Amino acid sequence: MDNSSRGVLIVGPHGAGKTWMLGRVMDALGAGCTTIRLSPSHALSTVPFGAVNARVGQNLVRSSDFYPVLQGLTDQVQADLATGNKVFLLVDNGEYLDAQSAAVITQVVMSTDVKLILVDHTGGHHTHLRELWRDGHLARFELAPLKSADVQNFIADVLGGVVSSAAADYLSSRSAGNPLVLKGLVAGALEEGSLQQVDGIWVLDHPADRLGAESSDFLQMDLDQLDAASRRLVEILALAGPLPLDVLLDLAETETIDDIQQRGMVEISPGGTLTMGLSRPATASPIRHMIPVGRSRRILEEVSKVIVPGPDSGPDMVINFTRWSLDCGLPVDDAQIVSAAVMSNHLLRINDAMHFSSLHVSAKHTAALLAQRSIAHLNRNWPDQARTLAAKSLELSLTPDVGAAALRAVHLAYFADDDYESRFDAGVAAYEQKYGPVLLSGSATRATIDVLILEAMKELTLGRADEASRRIRALLSHPLCSNRIDQTLLKSMLCEVLTTTGRLTSATSLAGEVIEELESPDGFPRPDIALLAYARAVATYIYDGNWNVVRQALEPSVFTNPDLMLFAGGLRDLGAAMAHCRVGRVDEALAALRPAVAALDDYDPWLVLHTALGLLSYCLALRGDAAGARDRLKQLESLDRRGSRFYHVEGAAYAAAAQALAGNAEEGTRRLMELRKECQEQGYAGTEMTVLTLLVRIGETSAPHRMVEVAEAMESGCRDFFREWAQALLSGDPALLDQASTTALGHGFELVAAELATRAQRGFDEEGKVQRGRKTGTRAASLRDNLPGLVTPVFKSNGLPQMTRREHEIAQLVAEGKSNNFIAEHLGVSLRTVEGHLYRTFIKLDLQSREQLAELVREGRGTRQDARR
Questions:
Q1: What is the DSSP letter of 279?
Q2: Cβ atoms within 10 A of the Cβ of 425, count?
Q3: Where does the pLDDT of residue 171 fall: very low under 50, low under 70, confident under 90, or very high at 90 and above?
Q4: Collapsed DSSP state (helix, strand, coil) of residue 788
Q5: Regarding the domain with residue range 7-142, which homologous superfamily does it belong to in the CATH classification?
Q6: Rounded to two decimals, what is the model's pTM?
Q7: Choice between 65 and 582, residue whose per-residue pLDDT is larger
Q8: φ, ψ for residue 91 (rounded to 5)?
Q9: Taking the domains of the chain in order of start, what are their residue ranges?
Q10: Do residues 541 and 498 lie in contact, with contact meaning Cβ atoms separated by under 8 Å?
Q11: Any idea which architecture 799-868 has in CATH?
Q12: Cα–Cα distance list, 583 to 46, 205, 461, 657, 715 (Å)
């Protein structure tokens, strides 16, 4: 409404909210404004002056001559201006404006006080009125795609509830942040039942891409704007998937590629080879369904003259061209079908994996395809069918390579079962009966390596750290494992062993190598391996307290492949929760844990649900929700699947701590002591340190002695801090506790820092060092204020140290049931002095009655007696 320009240009793709934005603009203009709205259309664009003649003034004589039309529109504008109103000329769908109407509008805008609001589609660079913007007369506003956080809020408004970050990231990627596409996907997911509300959180179930489809009408608006050449190129990308830019330049003119790129319909992905694909992945399937078979087949013939997938082709290309050929009714070799099924499982493209693995092939390839079908069924959460298919595949296998693939299917199919070890060992025995002993030697084959990696995985998941380490190290040094896939997988497995056994310095060094490989500009060829390898590497940094790396690693942008986002959801949220919990930010941990548990309860091929539930119960207990903590403990006890041993022990430790905090201190402490002993016997120094910190938190006074010993045996950047923490607790010296608090904060352990400062404050007060106690108390209060609502035993017993010595004495007598008169006589002070001390104590501790003060004193007395013991 100011005089800085002659109007605005609003640009955005279909569905970005331009019409909604116009409505808000009109509302904001309010009274005293007149709007003349022109709505060009595809039909009117073919008629000279069509847009103006169709919409302006009932008294305007329709004309095909420039000057009468110009005069008519000018007269209408001047008449509205004469009323004293501000006049706005609104042109919707600017891309459909005919040249003659544009000339009239330009003249009116430049010669009167009317303001122009021009709405145009992204890429509408041929729109006539855009010259006004290019010449600096219009201010441009671009409606950018919604980001993941915006999508989360947007869906929450639509659905009426909190949306998990994993679901928001996935839907954001699939829709490219387009609100209208997003609404269509959400509606489809609700109809399919894949979008569900669990514990108040909207989550997408394990990734099957059951989101419905973008409406054909909406897509048609985009496609209708394209000329034949541009539409053909969009169809090629929908059918073939992303293609190298060099290939597209052989298939289309440069101007055609530029056209669809400027319209925002495609995007270029960087890497060793530049590739171009559809900017909204959700549109690929609907576009494919719009293309008749005959046209699709003709396009395939054209594309095949330029590129044919071969041994060196990327997996996406093999999958897409195999599917495309099958859809066209063309013959496809059995070996290619098996290869496409394998690659689909590697890329976690479940729909394609299910499709390919369900096809009929010759007996020679049946066993190989059954193994892939078993894995695809597992990813669909159909374990019973997967077990049957895996066993059949191993039985029918004819070669060691196929047998190894079948054994992998057996390993995955029974992975979560309590009898996993016996099932897997039986599978290995069947394999060796067919193909001979599996030994690591210079003459080992690829099949042998694959089986040995599976055996290392077995030892890892059963918690046999020494044996797992021995097997992994031997494989890492074997020539057949020198490829980037095996090296990344094995190094990530070794990270897990080293983290659990407390060799975190070595573990973080390996984790850096793993992450560097996974984040290579050329990408990593096995997303199914990358997902867990990345999680293991990040977990290493979490346990070593490297919070800067952790924050960067847990960003959603890491998972650029949308097929990984939902798979990664449970793991990523659990990782974030673990990091927040170890720092002490329990509210943030709970926000990540609820969707993590919901996702992992549905789909948990990594066997980490036990950890998530144990951690959730612990965080709820810290937050003061004892009933909620007990409910999660019951859920944990009722699990009918096993957990990977390293994770299981840690989850059990958090659950035991939750039990102690939620009212059953004796049983929780007993269980934690059992787990500490198990960790010591198994050499799990890293996990034992976690158990010991939990024992300290619940008030077990024997834990600091062992903490010193474990800290001495650990390799970690935090080793000196753990030792300092334990020694300060053992000494009880408030100065050492205060210094340990400062060190804890320096390492990012905010809750530990607050607890240590609180203990130090109490010690200073009991020694009569009022000024030092007051200074430390101020810092402790500030630390606690950053962690609101937490109810650790140290915080709960902190009422006494905040009192002066006299207030403390009076409070103790109150707790013994003594009257004010008795207290006054006993201490040799006046009754008014006693009443004054009590009044100040009530204010200071936010208490309402003598009974509350007595209860607080009793809690504090018990804590001090435990500390002396």
A1: S
A2: 12
A3: confident
A4: coil
A5: P-loop containing nucleotide triphosphate hydrolases (3.40.50.300)
A6: 0.80
A7: 582
A8: -115, 105
A9: 7-142, 701-798, 799-868
A10: no
A11: Orthogonal Bundle (1.10)
A12: 65, 30, 27, 17, 20
